[in-house]
Amino acid sequence: MIDLHTHTNKSDGTDSPRELVNKAIAQGLTVLAISDHDTTSSWEEATQTLRGSMQLVLGSEISCLTTDGISVHMLGLLFDGGHPEMQIMLEETRDGRLPRMRKMIEKMQSAGIDISMTDVEAARPEGATLGRPHLADALVNKGIITSRDEAFQGMLNNDSEFYVSHAAPTPVDAIKMIRKAGGVAVIAHPFASHRGQILQVSDFQNLVEAGLNGIEVDHRDQNPDERAQLRGIARELDVVITGSSDYHGTGKLNALAEFQTSPIEWEKLEAQADKRRVVRA
Asked: Fewer CB under 10 Å: which end of the chain, C or N?
């Protein structure tokens, strides 16, 4: 079983890197990618926990914005964690999350919703990359909504009156940086229409020209028709087809390895990094 998109409590998941690796081993995964939002802070603990035959893929899910303001997430896998320009891009993207959160909270307060930055900080694990899921958790803790899923289908959806974008690289810039750092770039859930705005078919050619290696096709936020369309796009553009869980622990319904990448597609993807960086025990 190969799962190329998961999160720990170093961003917006609920499991520590150690807990996630242990779960993956117990569940029989052969390859696990950890891709916390805009950070590599989970890498060391995950690597130290690895044992047995499971392989660990280190990466990050990079928050991007298109030139017309559409939110896109780019998975960077197998890049050099010590690449200075890559780390600067991740740091700058993280820095943009605080003013964004404050603006979202201000919008909610103006609408009469009893929520504060203190509530969000209380819901965020120490050291975690700040994100909308922590705002969702704060809203749950205060009884305003019942779950993260409810939040992202409503109040925190990209089309919500409370949504605020933040400073972020364009998808093309993120791809170029991932490739410059020696890694591979896979666009995450690009047709997840229930999240709000999505990419168009015509957008993919520019991404491939920038160096895109793969498209995340099999993902719970994309319906069967969207997956079929993405599969066709990937084949036409000759990029790797991936499937993954986008696991966040107890914060979301997504189950570890509920969608997977085939070994053949994974081999094709790994071969496109500039070095063999898969971690083995």
From this structure: C
pLDDT in tens, 132-152: 889 999 999 999 999 988 888
Is 91 in the same domain as 104? Answer: no
Q: Is residue 280 part of a domain?
A: no
Give the span between the Cα atoms of 84 and 245, in whole angstroms. 29
Of 281, 280, 277, give the one whose Cα is nearest residue 76.
Answer: 277
pLDDT over 80 (residue 166): no
262 and 194 both lie in a single domain: yes
**119 in any annotated domain:** yes
Judge if 131 and 241 occupy the same domain: no
- pTM of the shown model: 0.87
Sign of CA dihedral 83, 272, 223, 244: negative
Four-residue CA torsion sign, 242, 247, 253, 257: positive
218: Cβ–Cβ under 8 A, 6 or more apart, which residues?
A: 227, 241, 242, 243, 244, 259, 260
Neighbours of 263 (CB within 10 A): 12
User: Which stretches does DSSP call E strand in 13-120?
Assistant: 31-37, 55-65, 71-77
* AA letter at 72: V
In this predicted structure, what is the pLDDT of residue 197? 63
What pLDDT does residue 164 have? 87
Residue 141 belongs to domain spanning = 97-153
Mean pLDDT for the stretch of residues 87-95 = 93
**CA 201, 202, 208 angle in degrees (round to 5)?**
95
